[in-house]
Amino acid sequence: MKRVSSAILPVLAIDRKSAVPLHRQIYDSYRKAIVGGTLQAGQRVPSTRILATELGISRTPIVNAYAQLLAEGYFQSQVGAGTVVSRSVSSQLRPAASRDRRPTKPRIDAQRFQIDECLPAAVENGTWHCNRGAFCVGQAAFDEFPIRVWKSLVTRHNREVSANSLNYGHPMGSENLRRAIAVYLRTARGVSCDVDQIMIVSGSQQALEITTRVLLNQGDSVWMEDPGYLFARSVFALHGCSIVPVPVDNEGLNVPLGIDRCPKARVALVTPSHQYPLGVTMSAARRLQLLDWAESAGAWIIEDDYDSEYRYESMPISSLQGLDGHSRVVYLGTFSKVLFPSLRLGYLVIPSDLVEPFLAARFTMDLCPPTFFQSVLADFIRQGHFSRHIRRMRSVYAQRRGKLTESIRQTFGARAELSGGQAGMHLTLVLDSIDDRKIVDRAARQNLWLTPLSPYYGSDTPRTGFILGFGSTSSPEIPGGIRKLHALLE
Ligand SMILES: Cc1ncc(COP(=O)(O)O)c(C=O)c1O
User: Fold this and answer.
1) Ligand 1 atom nearest residue 276's Cα
2) What is the rounded CA–CA span in Å between residue 212 and residue 218?
3) What does the alpha-carbon distance between residue 347 and residue 331 come to, in Å, rounded to a whole number?
4) Choice from 236, 337, 343, 345 to test ligand 1 binding pocket (greatest atom count within 8 A of CB)
5) Alpha carbons 102 and 214: distance in angstroms, whole number
6) Is residue 401 classed exposed, middle or buried when 0-12, 13-18 and 19+ CB atoms within 10 A define those classes?
7) What is the pLDDT of residues 171-219, one digit of tens each?
């Protein structure tokens, strides 16, 4: 026999002391819920037996109310699904007025944060992540991911799910995963860390949110690379921080200019291994200047090391954190680029003395990270699949990057100013004096997913151009995509 799944119990206002008979109260409650749109067309209603048990009354008034609702067409019986809200009646009955009363603007104190600053237009429109195709930024080559290995690990861990595994996990994250990450970071990224300093988070974005809660107060100044990572700007804006754009040149963040503009900033956010979006590597001299400034100003450095696994012309550059002799760096890493972003797993390496406040901030936010995929990932790393994947993808991306650079040079010639192709999964094509935002919209209509450069600037003198992702753009797609882009600019 086919089993009908249990329906969600609706809220029914039943008053046993009322003079109104119970069957009438049940009928009225359902009718009101359908007319008001709380219960929607096709939605299952609980069986009379289950509802009687839940309400603690006999079945008779419920059977009578259901019979009435069926007779009047509010309910209908559907073979295999039990009783459902009638499809024909619900949309006609819902009065527009009840929807129209909903406020159209959020009723919050607009002084506290500007929604526009926290929610970039690209996110609202969904262009940055919903689409797949040529030049999408932030997407790995998903079709190259060792999905069979991953699935077999997921299946194994699924088989091992027990009553014990349903409980809360540790707020810092799974010990196994943290151990695996610590070994990786010490070995491959030159990060100086113990397992106790590693906190598992749901990606860099949560890492930034937790770090901001701990280190910054409303009104504090933050140095941000200019141009810099938009979604980090969102976090600082939400917390009412004052963002100080510090220009990036071919040595990375210009530290002396930062000191000139705001010597007393509390935090500097940097992407030293592969600056986002220009892609430059911070020079050794600038790294030392930055660490010196942080130590003397009592400031903190947030190092976002989001995609440094992939470096094409040299060995990966060691982390800034590993150079720091004064524990002034909070290091963030993510599996979004190196594996895939829907995993929502990343990590923080926290200076030892700050572990407790970080733990407190994370605890108030989500108590602990979800446990299942942490276990899968720990095995993926420990069994060597992670390093194998990185090695393999480095050569896939190197080929795509080569094709992209070549196509740009051939199509744009001397006009092309390319930046940041030494590492990662994107490079930046700087083309001054164009309306990059407008071109992005036009390109999207042709299935070309460009990211404009100018919105990444916090200063009044943005450069224009495009950030071109090559992670999920196959080599054969690249020349045609670049030709399309060139035609759009003509
Ligand atoms: C500079 C930078 N940091 C971090 C991330 C990754 O963020 P998350 O780990 O929240 O997916 C990205 C993704 O595009 C990025 O560009």
Assistant:
1) 1
2) 10
3) 8
4) 337
5) 36
6) buried
7) 999 999 999 999 999 999 999 999 999 999 999 999 999 999 999 999 9
In 3D space, the residue among 207, 214, 162 whose CA is nearest the CA of residue 181 turns out to be 207
Query: What ligand 1 atom has the least distance to the C-alpha of 335?
Result: 9
State residue 466 phi and psi, 5-degree precision.
-140, 145
DSSP-assigned letters across all residues of 456-478: G--SSS---EEEEE-TT--TTHH
CB of 465 within 6 A of ligand 1: the answer is no
In residues, how long is the chain?
A: 490
* CA dist., res. 456 & res. 163, Å (int): 47
Element (H, E) at 122: helix 121-125
- From 135, 224, 229, 303, mutation site for ligand 1 pocket: most ligand atoms within 8 A of C-beta: 229
Using a 6 Å cutoff on CB, does residue 272 contact ligand 1?
A: no
Residues with Cβ within 8 Å of residue 453, at least 6 apart in sequence: 227, 277, 428, 430, 436, 462, 463, 464, 465, 466, 467
Enter the tokens of residue 43: 């939605």
Q: How far apart are CA 198 and CA 215, in angstroms?
A: 17
How many A from CA of 273 to the centre of ligand 1? Answer: 14
State the distance from the centre of ligand 1 to the C-alpha of 204, rounded, in angstroms: 6
What are the tokens at 125?
């429109």
Q: What are phi and psi of 212, to 5 degrees?
A: -65, -40
For ligand 1, is residue 334 a contact (CB within 6 Å)?
Answer: yes
C-alpha 380 to ligand 1 mean position (Å): 21
Contact 81, 7 (CB under 8 A): no
Ligand 1 in reach of 380 Cβ (< 6 A): no
The predicted-structure confidence for 20-69, as pLDDT tens digits, reads as follows 999 999 999 999 999 988 899 999 999 999 999 999 999 999 999 999 99
Q: Is 229 in the pocket of ligand 1 (CB under 6 A)?
A: yes
Tokens of 75: 């309910």
Ligand 1 mean position to 346 CA, how many Å? 10
Residues of the chain with pLDDT under 70: 1-5, 90-100, 109-113, 120-131
- 165: tokens are 């595994």
